């Protein structure tokens, strides 16, 4: 019998059918065009908001769907197993969760309903040209001048960068502080003087994702946009929500493996070589058996993490374990899927080719896998 996730039930199965139909009819047909233009259509964000498929685990009182992480997980899975990597819903949801978990009541009411409706597109602006994994090296500064912060600096590798209308921006508010001195400021970008989107970056994979450079030249933002209202809380806020982000990265990795394996099984059963289907060769059967085992292990691991998330017991070490091991395994599994496709596996028209290129960054963003191992080692 097929494996069924421990957290699934009949209501979620029906919801999965709804999500799958939406992805198949309103997203998948546009994916090639999105990859060519390097961004997902703005109308798609609005359509998802209207359909109730954004901010699914945000409470109804703030405009969300009032579900839990399982509902978010279903959407991530249905996107990732089809190779829809350009739609940055994960980052959008993470941005919303920072507001939910750390914002004032006024901030929640101000931004969450608009994020849920797709009226705002969220992004997280932390990384800088000289500060990636080491966020203490952030140089973007926000200096308070009366009722506003004056912001100067730049960010790079920002998912949803060119489309974003609400940034969760990591800045230095106390550059003299030896430790900390960082804050998170929510920045509404539309019509904002001094704010500029630079290049949409040319990447190895994820071609439909509008990963961009952002620039801040004397940008002025009201002080009531400081997340939580207390300066110097930025790193604490980030550390509290990183397990959620890493769980999303790992879950996307598992779903991509499942989709890639399914496509590979179908391909090897249909492809003829030396007078028989490729799937009938012992090497192919053994390779598929190995891949199926790895994918099942990854699935059981991520399901355990999801169960812990639902119970409120997912710790940062376990999330780091899931993030590094699953994304490393994702790269290996999809590499084998490409190999089993032969020359066709190198063609972008095939799902496994696109998945392989898209998967490489999974080991880098959300904290590099080397950083994940460092975090795990500190807990031993």
Written account of the structure:
The protein is globular, with a radius of gyration of 21 Å. The model has no long low-confidence stretch (mean pLDDT 96). It folds into three domains: 10-121, Orthogonal Bundle (Butyryl-Coa Dehydrogenase, subunit A, domain 1), CATH 1.10.540.10; 123-231, Butyryl-CoA Dehydrogenase, subunit A, domain 2 (Beta Barrel); 236-378, Butyryl-CoA Dehydrogenase, subunit A, domain 3 (Up-down Bundle), CATH 1.20.140.10. With 380 residues, it is an alpha+beta fold. The strands form three sheets. It has a four-stranded antiparallel β-sheet with strand order 2-3-7-6, with no helix packed on it. Helix content is 48%, strand content 14%. It has eleven helices and nine strands. The longest helix is centred in the middle third of the chain and has 37 residues, at 234-270.
Can you summarize this structure?
The protein has 380 residues and is α+β, with helices and mostly antiparallel strands. It has helices at residues 10-26, 31-37, 42-51, 69-80, 89-102, 105-117, 234-270, 282-311, 316-340, 351-359, 369-378; strands at residues 122-125, 141-145, 148-158, 166-172, 182-188, 195-200, 212-222, 272-273, 276-277.
